[in-house]
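Working notes for the structural subgroup meeting. M.R. asked for a predicted model of this chain before we commit to crystallization trials. I am recording the input and output together here so anyone reviewing the notebook later can reproduce the run.

Input as submitted:
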Amino acid sequence: MESEKEEADLSEEFWKAVEQIEGLSLQTGLGRVSGEREDYKELLQLVTKEIDKCAKNTKNFLFLKDYKSFRIEVHGIKGSLANIGAAQLSSKALELENASFKEDEAFCSANLPPFLDALQKFKSDIADAFAKDNAGPTKAGEQDELPSDGGGDMYFDLTILLIMGDVDFQIVMRRKPSIKVSDYLYLLAKFDNIALKGVDSLNRIANREADDNDVKVLSDITDLLGKLGCTGIISLIDNTILAGKKGHTAFASDCAKKAQGDYERKQARILASKKEGKPDYGGRGSSREDFEALPLKDALEQLELTESARKLRVLAVDDSPVMLSTINSVLGSEYKIYSMPKPSLVESFLRQITPDLILLDYEMPEINGFELVPIIRSFEELKETPIIFITSMGTIDHISAATVLGARDFIVKPFQADNLRKKVAKHIVRKKIKTGGF
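Returned structure, recorded in token form:
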């Protein structure tokens, strides 16, 4: 009882320290996440990481006079700061963003250093507040759910394979009725290790540059594909192997050229089931170990039941971890949220998962939100899927452009939690009425 009181006192000290951080409105920040204090703590931790990234990248981009990348970087930190209630710092970022549009080197060079100094002091104040809290890392310290460049646990999501239909699990279980989930995951891991070698081997055979090892690689791949239940592509690769073994170089080249495209698509779709983070086996066993010990047949039946009762899916595309975390906090209890920080991965994601609604940021690196809309609409099943732009650029021009491209609505960040909930619910209801979902 005494330790619980000490922990509560320390937690209260943390919130008092946060309230005293200069330029931060705790009330405003909590309003972004419906008053959930643990979610707000997570946002604070994410912002400190984003500050480090901003400091490094903005200096480099300004030195290189890469104003577009500079603008995207300050745009991101601007939204994150506004989202936690740091309005003054957010407005400074806005000034730099506007200057970058004009490629005003003098303004950016003069104002970036004091801005970064202010960010570092802000980060230090947040760290001091966390030093008064012994509750351990919040979700931000444990979160490995967002796709990233590396690190974190990897696993294969069998639900994705079920949805896509590229795998015939009946073939798998006929060949080996006693196969367990762990056995099948082992086969997927082996395929993951060799899949790209198959692309290279087919390319060399097609260019008549192959050696005996390429034939062996393809033989190993066809064996794995058969065990995984992916039989459709095997005959094309087998023809290539047979021609290569007989020394029919020209015929092997022709067969490899025919197989290349189909194999690349197939291996990409199979490996789309590979995800980073901690798998959620809710209702499918009490732990990862329990689930993987199940017979594959039983596990697939559980997955099918779970899928049939699933939450509606919302895809959120934003390069800011803070914004993605906020969206998940606001909508996560009602919808299944897929967070996508890399817009370049959206097309491959949509080949495996069909969302019921899409939230798009406007200003992102690689591909902006407007450029993503035609890609999304190119999928037949997404022609009527609501797209809502989330952007701080709420001008008439941007709104009009988004509407012309096929967006259904927009919301200007930083937004209030209730406003986001209402807009998402409104457009999902409209879609269901239109498509006969009610």
